[in-house]
Amino acid sequence: MRALFIGGTGTISSAVSKLVVQNGWQLYLLNRGNKTDRVPSGAVVLTADINNEAEVLRLIEDLKFDVIADFTAFEPTQIQRDIRLFSNRTKQFIFISSASAYQKPLSHYRITESTPLSNPYWKYARDKIACEELLILEYRKNNFPITIIRPSHTYGERNIPVAINGKKGSWQVINRIIKGKPVIIPGDGNSLWTLTHNSDFAKAFVGIMGNHASIGEAIHITSDESITWNKIYDIIGEALNVEVKKVHVATDFLVKCQADLEGGLIGDKANTVVFDNSKIKRLVPEYVATTRFDQGVRLSVKYLLAHPELQIEDEEFDLFCDNVVKAQQDALMYFKSI
Are 269 and 124 in contact (CB under 8 A)? Predict the structure, then answer.
């Protein structure tokens, strides 16, 4: 069996690439070759910019695939490009969408694949919805063999999931915890969130590859473990052997302080999400997520602390946290004084 991954070295796709090769697939990775340390032994790297269609066609002109998966498409124009490139070249085209595309706010707490797609708060999610619509139309009109996968918050050894972080990743939050500084949790911290280890995601994804019953379907892949944000931070603290100083701040206030937080919070993490995974379990009967968050995050903490190059300081976000915490404390002192 032969597969082509567009990308293949990210948080989600690197775990999938590793497992695909272990399962005996002939794997090609089409990317710019910037993350060679994440390429599994045995995979073939085709170095190119996917937007250079002539170069891509030259590289794959003699190849056909059982599966092509694009882990890097975020906008409809990129899907239109994929349709041009890969029509009649694969038995299955897998698009990695996002669970953030589901209805916000939810009309029912339990999310199935039939939950409406609508997210007025986040352009990223709306673009993913538009990509899905293009692919569904192409499937209906021209029998393009699509499968749509919707991951939720998926993490691996190189990253620790947090509720809010700056542009440089989550390290600054972890650093604040280590130093005993307060960290911001949106809302009261009691909304439920679902975190999935990338090794678990990979098991389900590989079960979908070449699975004829998944053609024309949209499927989310998540853990069954839903935890409050308060508990998530407590578990991170336990892995660091530090008590986390949590400061709860209203989500609306955070968005007023920094507008670009709206999509990731009101359009995503500020909502309770509980996923019904019966569809992926029906399509891949052996699938079960086996890595609890307390287990997975210990691996992430160990890896992050052992790799200083991943400990990227973010002074701008650190100052933002300090200012928000101080503003809330000052407001509280004012009301105590009157």
Answer: no
DSSP 221: E
CATH no. of 171-195+226-273+292-328:
3.90.25
Task: Locate 130 and state its tokens.
Answer: 């538009």
Average pLDDT over residues 89-94: 98
Question: Residue 331: what pLDDT?
Answer: 86
Q: Where are the beta strands (DSSP E) in 222-300?
A: 226-228, 246-249, 274-275
Structure confidence at residue 152 as a pLDDT band (50, 70, 90): very high
* Token pair 């070295």: residue: 9
Cα three-residue angle 11-12-13, rounded to 5 degrees = 100
Question: Quick check: helix, strand or coil at residue 2?
Answer: strand
- The tokens describing 253, both together, are 């206030």
Q: What is the mean pLDDT of residues 13-42?
A: 93
Measured CA to CA, the distance from residue 106 to residue 270 in angstroms comes to 12
pTM of the model: 0.95
The mean pLDDT value for 78-95 works out to 97
Percentage of the chain lying above the pLDDT 70 cut? 100
pLDDT one-digit tens code per residue, 185-240? 999 999 999 999 999 999 999 999 999 999 999 999 999 999 999 999 999 999 99
Counting other chains too, the contacts that 50-57 makes at CB distance below 8 Å and 24 or more residues apart are 50/6, 50/78, 50/81, 51/81, 53/81, 53/84, 53/85, 56/30, 56/85, 57/85
Q: Which residues of 234-264 are buried (b: 16+ CB within 10 A; e: fewer)?
A: bbbbebbeeebebeebebeebbeeeeebbbb
- Homologous superfamily in CATH for domain 2-155+197-221: NAD(P)-binding Rossmann-like Domain (3.40.50.720)
The Cα–Cα gap between 261 and 251 comes to 9
The domain spans of the chain are: 2-155+197-221, 171-195+226-273+292-328
Distance CA 190, CA 148 (A): 31
